[in-house]
């Protein structure tokens, strides 16, 4: 805790209620740092200020707290809902932020009459009207399913503007992935049957489809329509291939499977989606959480994921450990999504297989992250050897512009866990002479460090001149920053960079030096 704020915080804690509610922690300039919920506000908030806390993120948060405000509610469920609303509204820097840059992908059948379109899009129902299927964790999963559907049922995927202006069939018709409704090569009734079959396939009703294709093939053969019979035979073969690839899906049902694991300081949550008995893939998250209790961490992840990221939720969440406050979490999710949600940690048969698959994936994801983590730690270690002091947080500044105009200063942030993208900043530079990179750097550094804390190492991309400018800014602000200027080598070739220090010395590290690799990684970011 900041010593100047200690008397104020102690007074707040002394008079804090023991009722359930939401607490908000603010920094020196009134910025919202963190939002949390509690069964007992006094006990929960006081726990941040005990001497035994050793979680680095919690320590960093506590060091910045200048004020705490609370909101009392009637129940833990209300507290959870209010907490998530405040996080969504304010996006505090110390809360879990899972929305990286995109919504999940859905496959949809548009409502266009008489020839609906089959395509994919991000965000359920936000830009398209129709029936939605998914979510698909990656564009690859969605595209793969679309290709199968096009081969099976020849439903169009083109944009409406393209469809409306066709006078002859496009390439999709030539490669037998569309029935060319744009030029009337198929009747609305036959096209509707193909659309209905596509929807049945997406819902997992492949057994009845297979029986219908057999009947149609046999009928065509009896009528000596051998070309049509071959067409249905090929569709049956493709459908059988799809069913063989999906042999793992033994039962119908919808569920999200979540497995959490932690090793060597790396925590991962793997989430996998099952819809209509089909595993649609999954994704691993590495949330930076303020807890060492896996049950609490998983509960926090579930709350943040479904309130902040997901557009929908299945009625069943299968987890590999018992989550904290399960009943309250179920109640809040059920209320938010207007349907009964169950969280289960004890499952059997096929659901146990799904959970085992998620646990295998979460361990694999952690191993992959640890391999990168150990390499990054070694780079930080070697950089510390070069500069002769501990380095955990690095901030790097660079100036960019277009022909001297639209100048922007970028600040990227790295620590021992890698890139801290939510701490990145960009500064639009104004009121300087066009192309004056020194003035741009001065403005960016001044705006940044008037409020922000100094990092362990400040990298200035631009060499000796920009470093001197940065030194002047720090002197004006009364700050003692450890800085290094990085100038590019001959021909701007990587590996020939020179490091300039504030005492006037400079060094050029070997091309294979891990400290140089770290500096290049930060600068290139």
Q: If you had to describe this structure to a student in words, what would you say it looks like?
A:
- Strands 12, 13, 14, 15, 16, 17, 18 and 19 form an 8-stranded mixed beta sheet that branches.
- Helix 4 packs across helix 11 (294-309), helix 4 (76-90) crosses helix 12 (326-337) and helix 9 (206-222) runs antiparallel to helix 10 (226-245).
- The protein is globular.
- It has 4 domains: 3-90, 3-Layer(aba) Sandwich (GIY-YIG endonuclease), CATH 3.40.1440; 105-204, no CATH class; 255-367, 2-Layer Sandwich (Nucleotidyltransferase, domain 5); 389-524, Nucleotidyltransferase, domain 5 (2-Layer Sandwich), CATH 3.30.420.
- Mean pLDDT is 81; it is low at 245-250.
- Helix content is 42%, strand content 22%.
- With 525 residues, it is an alpha+beta fold.
- The protein is built from 16 helices and 19 strands.
Entry summary:
Helices cover about 40% and strands about 20% of the residues. It is an alpha+beta fold and about 525 residues long. The strands form 4 sheets. Strands 12, 13, 14, 15, 16, 17, 18 and 19 form an 8-stranded mixed β-sheet that branches.
Key terms:
single chain, alpha+beta, GIY-YIG endonuclease, Nucleotidyltransferase, domain 5, 8-stranded mixed beta sheet, 5-stranded mixed beta sheet, 16 helices
């Amino acid at each position: 805790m900041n010593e100047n704020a200690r008397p104020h915080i102690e007074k707040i804690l002394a008079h804090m209620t023991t009722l359930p509610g939401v607490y908000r922690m603010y920094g020196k300039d009134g910025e919202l740092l963190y939002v949390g919920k509690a069964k007992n506000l006094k006990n929960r908030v006081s726990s941040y200020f005990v001497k035994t806390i050793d979680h680095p993120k919690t320590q960093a948060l506590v060091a910045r707290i200048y004020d705490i405000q609370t909101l009392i509610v009637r129940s833990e469920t209300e507290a959870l809902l209010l907490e998530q609303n405040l996080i969504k509204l304010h996006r505090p820097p110390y809360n879990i932020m899972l929305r990286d840059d995109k919504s999940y992908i859905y496959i949809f059948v548009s409502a266009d009459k008489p020839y609906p379109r089959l395509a994919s899009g991000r965000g359920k129902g936000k830009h398209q009207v129709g029936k939605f299927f998914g979510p698909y964790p990656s564009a690859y999963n969605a595209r793969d399913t679309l290709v199968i559907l096009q081969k099976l049922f020849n439903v169009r995927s083109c944009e409406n503007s393209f469809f409306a202006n066709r006078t002859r069939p496009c390439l999709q018709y030539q490669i037998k992935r569309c029935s060319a409704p744009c030029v009337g090569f198929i009747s609305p009734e036959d096209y509707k049957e193909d659309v209905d079959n596509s929807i049945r396939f997406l819902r997992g009703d492949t057994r009845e489809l297979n029986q219908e294709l057999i009947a149609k093939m046999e009928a065509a053969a009896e009528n000596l329509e051998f070309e049509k019979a071959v067409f249905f035979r090929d569709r049956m073969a493709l459908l059988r291939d799809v069913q063989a690839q999906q042999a793992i899906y033994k039962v119908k049902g919808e569920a999200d499977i979540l497995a959490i694991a932690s090793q060597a300081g790396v925590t991962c949550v793997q989430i996998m989606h099952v819809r209509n008995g089909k595993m649609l893939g999954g994704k691993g998250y590495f949330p930076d959480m303020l807890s060492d209790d896996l049950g609490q961490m998983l509960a926090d992840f579930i709350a943040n994921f479904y309130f902040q990221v997901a557009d929908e939720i299945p009625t069943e969440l299968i987890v590999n450990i018992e989550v904290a406050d399960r009943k309250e979490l179920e109640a809040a999710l059920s209320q938010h999504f207007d349907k009964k949600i169950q969280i289960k940690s004890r499952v059997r048969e096929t659901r146990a297989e799904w959970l085992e698959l998620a646990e295998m994936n979460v361990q694999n994801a952690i191993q992959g992250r640890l391999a990168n983590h150990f390499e990054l730690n070694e780079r930080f270690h070697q950089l510390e050897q070069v500069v002769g002091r501990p380095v955990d947080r690095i901030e790097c500044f660079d100036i960019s512009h277009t022909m001297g105009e639209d100048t922007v200063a970028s600040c990227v942030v790295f620590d021992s866990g890698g890139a801290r993208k939510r701490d990145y900043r960009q500064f639009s530079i104004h009121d300087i002479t066009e192309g004056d990179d020194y003035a741009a750097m001065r403005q960016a550094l001044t705006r940044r460090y008037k409020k922000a804390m100094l990092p362990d190492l400040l990298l200035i991309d631009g060499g000796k001149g920009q470093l001197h400018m940065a030194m002047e800014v720090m002197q004006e602000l009364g700050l003692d920053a450890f800085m290094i200027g990085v100038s590019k080598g001959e021909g701007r070739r990587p590996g020939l960079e020179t490091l300039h220090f504030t005492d006037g010395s400079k060094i050029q590290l070997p091309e294979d030096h891990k400290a140089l690799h770290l500096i290049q990684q930060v600068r290139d970011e």
